[in-house]
Amino acid sequence: MRLPARGATALVSIFATAQAASRAVATLPITDAGDAAAIPAWDVQSTAKITQDPAALSKAGFVLTTSTSWHHASVSRCTVMGCLLAAGVYNDSDLFYSENLATIDKTQFKVPWLYRSEFTLPAPHSNTNTTGAGSTHYLLETNGITSRADIYLNGHQVADKVTQSGAYGGHVYDVTAAVITGGSLSNNSNSSGNAIVVRAYPTNYLQDFGVGFVDWNPYPPDNGTGVWRDITVRQTGSVAIEAFRVTTNGTAGPVTVQATVRNLEKAATVSVLAEAVVSRDDGSATVSSTLPTTIQLAPGQATQVSLAVNVASPAVWWPRQWGEQPLYRAQLKVSTSSSITSASSLSDTATRSFGFRQVTATVSAADDILFSINGRPFQVLGGGYTSDMFLRWDAARFEAHALYTLDMGLNTIRLEGKMEQPELYAIADRLGLMVLPGWECCDKWEAWSYNDDLPAPTAIWSDADYATANASMRHEAAMQQSHPSILGFLVGSDYWPDDRATAIYQDALAAAGWQAPVVASAAKTGYSKALGPGGMKMPGPYDWVPPNYWYDITDAASVTDDARYGAAFGFGSEQGAGGGTPTLSSLQRFLSVTDLEDLWKAPNKGLYHMSTAASSFHNRSIFNTALWQRYGAPTSLDDYLLKTQMADYEATRAMFEGFTANWGKQGAVSTDFSSTARPATGVVYWMLNGAWPALHWALFDYYLHPAGAYYGVQAAVGRSENVVYDYVRRSVVLVNRSLNQTGVRTVRAELISAADGKVLANVTTDTKEKTLTTTPNSGRTVLSSIPGITTLTDVGLLRLTLLDGNVYSGKVISRNVYWLPAGGHVDTLNWDASSWYDTPVSTYTSLKSLSTLPVANVSVAVSQKEVNNSTSWEVHLENNSPTPAVFISLNLVDSASHDVVPVVWSDNYVTLFPHEALTVTVRALGPALGMAGSTEGAAVQVIGRNVAKATVNLK
Ligand SMILES: *[C@@H]1O[C@H](CO)[C@@H](O)[C@H](O)[C@H]1NC(C)=O
Ligand SMILES: *[C@@H]1O[C@H](CO)[C@@H](O)[C@H](O)[C@H]1NC(C)=O
Ligand SMILES: *[C@@H]1O[C@H](CO)[C@@H](O)[C@H](O)[C@H]1NC(C)=O
Ligand SMILES: *[C@@H]1O[C@H](CO)[C@@H](O)[C@H](O)[C@H]1NC(C)=O
Fold it and tell me: Glycoside hydrolase family 2 immunoglobulin-like beta-sandwich domain spans which residues (predicted)?
């Protein structure tokens, strides 16, 4: 069923008839000091519907008779739209279909919404004492409520919207005087449970600190308003731990465990003991350290404690491409009695996970940043990550995103104001994925007077806004600080924070024990004196550019190459060729028949599933013009979609290969980074994923189906050693992204005519360079030319193979096939006409003859393979023809022919030379991730540019 276009009136009636299944009630499992639990469910309703005073509403049992008109969301955190989706008022397959989202009445979100929940707290164990030292306290902890909120508990106001402000403003409130313990919830108004009410105020991205989407996609109708992160109740004794932090001495010991400890008592002085315990994350190898003396704390007094714990020969944490991810755990315990080991005297405890790793950064004289991890120069290859449009968090879904990122060979995700939930960092730590968080551009977060790009009428920061920014930075820094996956923090994106904000951010980060680099901004617009230049560039492109774009710089890349914008030098913080068109199976889930026709019949039309209408990326003109010129006008939707996949593959591969090729080639990359050479130190593809089903800016689609853009990246960086074609120099570069893979290699370059398979060149480094050895963490030219390319009369196919050892016995490390136009020509770029998002092409090359290749006969056989208890399959492909089989896509489907997602293929969209055989493997990720409804697949669908469609059953 699809939502027909309808107005506000009809939607209001959905609200009126949606019955809440049950009231949000729960017993929080909190009985001992240090225990904490999130409010697990919410009833939500608009203040336009509920007229009672929120203080009165925050009494257990109060609204029982009217509770049926509230929407019940069985989740601990949800924006208003997220809650309404969880409550079944909306469903996203309808919302995301065609232009339905635009029909949602936004005025309903212009007023505050109420969140309400009831909960009981069991009577606390043992050390209950309401009259002084040893007493039990309860803390209510927020982690950000958008845009701001008043909070009420059992008739008392706990916080107001001035303090509780900002999507990332986390605060701790002592609610001991307000809570009721030992009660039970019952269906009468004399209930002895607790009731909490949160009045969440509407969000305007230009006036409030929200989680926005800039020009990426249409905004959620509620602008992300609400309790999007947990609200937690925590029990402590008289003394509570605050600002808990764990730091290492680089990759060595000792571990320093620090916190503020506060006496929550109003009248009693307490003596405090503290102990820090460090172990591996499985609890083994425990080491501890205790404060030598007790500390006396007067009522309300707080002090810093710092404990050093010596861990002998710690196991070092590496990003996935370089090694293992050993994790440790640090626990701090504070007690108010004479014995720290007595459980009954425990007053508070806090635990965090950490790893031994060191990230440093250097900014060169040319203003390029170089990150190093554990002393090794680290080329950042990343993607810009976005939350779901409704900020819904699903750990398995995020893990699939992380596994996809690593499977492509990328090593980093950038979070531009999308700091998500604490679980994200734990998953990244475990998988070895680096995370580069930071604040978002183009709205309230960067509302300083010198920001020339702010949309009107953005409110410049007031004193209260600086306070919100401070609370936000303190909260995020505390959440992220010990995670080894953290690569740094970008305190600005397109602009840099002013001096006052910079000081606030730096103080907050330092107080949280921040140990990774802090970068002024992701662009070269400016910087505060305190932080200095950030070394990142943001000159685009954000839309299609030809593959030679990245390579079109001088050989010894120098400062003057700035006129080459996003080309492969320096650190590109967000850029790419824009693509990421989903495949038909995904498109059909969110586009109508007319929308699908528009894709290929109206190539310049503004489309709802692109960026917003106000954006430069609302239509597909730049991409489509190039596609029509280079691949030929599409003859059908299928033909268009196949061409988009080829264009996307070609574009993403070229960008990442260009950066890896120019990592070592432009001068040695070392942590001493002072020369004027400008190696490619990093690039973040814009973007990794979409907040909703989008037609561009994603390496895989919203339904997690990977296609051309994904496999282009995988071909570029999916293997730690690769051979790369430099489109501008027509040379071959050997890339080694490992830390310690060395030895003899052979590179072979073979060129054939696409139309008839005729061999035009076959060159190997075996004959050219007798002992080619590979150098870790480098890129270097190994074949300066390939005969036959400049004399190509029409499209040629170039296969580059990297062999471990010699050409006769060497095992294939990587193979990479390029389709090249006549003469090996490249598209002519008009650099001088570049805009912030594009460099126009003045003359296009032609790849049109790829559409008229003779049909190739490819046989497909499948065999089962067991790896780590999860089923994987080997798919054996063989081209039985004397001509090539071009761009063969392989798709794992279930018994109903639906895409199996998430899925990993060792290779895909492959091009086979005449009579070439290739085996690839495939595995469904869903079952291991416990994803609902996931299967291991039943068949593989095969189709290629010149290969007929076939389906091969797995069993
Ligand atoms: C309760 O508090 C009083 C007053 O501070 C103290 O004397 C007593 O020892 C405490 N009882 C326990 C069980 O901690
Ligand atoms: C969302 O924020 C935008 C500004 O970015 C504002 O124009 C719009 O009115 C807001 N929507 C709601 C429902 O408040
Ligand atoms: C930190 O580690 C270095 C070796 O990397 C060592 O020289 C230094 O003494 C250590 N610092 C402390 C406080 O132990
Ligand atoms: C290569 O480096 C990794 C990560 O540091 C290490 O675990 C591995 O033992 C090294 N291998 C060799 C052969 O040095």
Answer: 239-357
